[in-house]
Specification:
The chain contains eight helices and eleven strands. The protein has three domains: 59 residues, Beta Barrel (OB fold (Dihydrolipoamide Acetyltransferase, E2P)); 137 residues, 3-Layer(aba) Sandwich (Rossmann fold); 62 residues, Ribonucleotide Reductase Protein R1, domain 1, CATH 1.10.40. Bound molecules: guanosine-5'-triphosphate, magnesium ion and zinc ion.
Length: 292
């Protein structure tokens, strides 16, 4: 029998089988010995419980993509949620999430929430991502504005919401699908000293898709790779590739750089380029330290 893992806590997994039944499972010893750890989103072969407390996961089917933190697999779309205000949007974090999604081979979208609080800031964020190869939407999870269009665009897909703590991911999922996930305001978060959402759970929703709520600050670890590859994840640079004086060019501080010229001429957003340069410095450092 086959199923998909919806959640895993303390070595116990919940899987949904093809007929819509849920199973409590553990990973078979064989998988543990091979250090194959099931992830949320994994498609598995399972043996249902035969009256015991749980059944068994006997095989993990090949993954189309996977992430390390949170440990999830087979995600179709990562929806990055940024608040127009409260909290102040951290666009460096947005760019980091976008990079990690792209490196993992997962389609990515940007949704700006809380347009009720700061419509101008929402428009400004969207402007910064023109040409960045990411579709953007503006919504208000509180009033429901834009929520129908967002739901339509995600129909039938396995989608994960990621982004800053307090951006409104859980509120948005509740508005999209009539759920009642726990949400929290800032004071509550500070009381707890962490995110309101604390673990990952895949939830089947109308239309055949599934949604994954993730805690803020997840999905931020990136692998360490040659920094010269970083620019490949900034589609707005692509039209200028090969036109710089130095080859290869990092498009950061080099003279006679076609990308920097485009930034100066207003063809590429200056702030998005500045964040790229910051992430590049970061990756150069990590690359130098990779054997430490
Ligand atoms: N004004 C306004 N407030 C919103 C909107 N969406 C969410 N909020 C509020 O923002 C706060 C944080 O929302 P959550 O949904 O808990 O945020 P989260 O992104 O899930 O946060 P973590 O689980 O900590 O990562 C709550 O008080 C929500 O009521 C919106 O569109 N407008
Ligand atoms: Mg949440
Ligand atoms: Zn260049």
């Amino acid at each position: 029998m086959r199923g998909v893992i919806l959640q895993g806590i303390g070595g116990f997994y919940t899987a949904l089988d093809e007929s819509g039944r849920q199973h409590t499972l553990r990973a078979q010893g064989k998988l543990r010995r091979e250090r194959l750890k099931p992830k949320v989103g994994d498609k598995v072969e399972l043996t249902p419980s035969d009256g015991e407390e749980h059944g068994w996961i006997t095989r993990i089917l090949p993954r189309k993509n996977e992430l390390v933190r949170p440990p999830v697999a087979n995600i179709d779309v990562i929806v990055i949620v940024a608040a127009a205000a409260t909290p102040d949007p951290d666009l460096l974090m947005v760019d980091r999430l976008m990079l990690n999604a792209r490196r993992a081979g997962i389609d990515v979208r940007l949704v700006v929430n809380k347009t009720d609080l700061a419509p101008d800031s929402a428009g400004d964020i969207v402007d910064q991502y023109r040409g960045a190869g990411v579709s953007t939407m503006r919504v208000c999870a509180d009033t429901g504005e834009g929520i129908d269009a967002l739901r339509d665009s995600l129909k039938g897909k396995v989608h994960a919401l990621a982004g800053q703590s307090g951006a409104g991911k859980s509120t948005m999922i509740n508005a999209l699908y009539g759920l009642a996930l726990e949400t929290g305001d800032l004071s509550r978060r500070i009381d707890r000293g962490k995110n309101t959402t604390r673990h990952c759970q895949l939830i089947p929703v109308e239309g055949g898709g599934m949604v994954l709520d993730t805690p803020g600050f997840s999905l931020l670890d990136s692998e360490v790779f040659d920094p010269v590859e970083l620019k490949d994840s900034w589609p707005e640079f692509a039209p200028y590739e090969g036109r710089c004086y130095f080859q290869p060019c990092y498009h950061a501080t080099e003279p006679r750089c076609a990308v920097r010229d485009a930034v100066a001429a207003g063809g590429i957003d200056e702030r998005r380029h500045a964040r790229y340069a910051a992430l590049l410095d970061d990756m150069k450092q990590k690359w130098r330290d990779r054997y430490d």
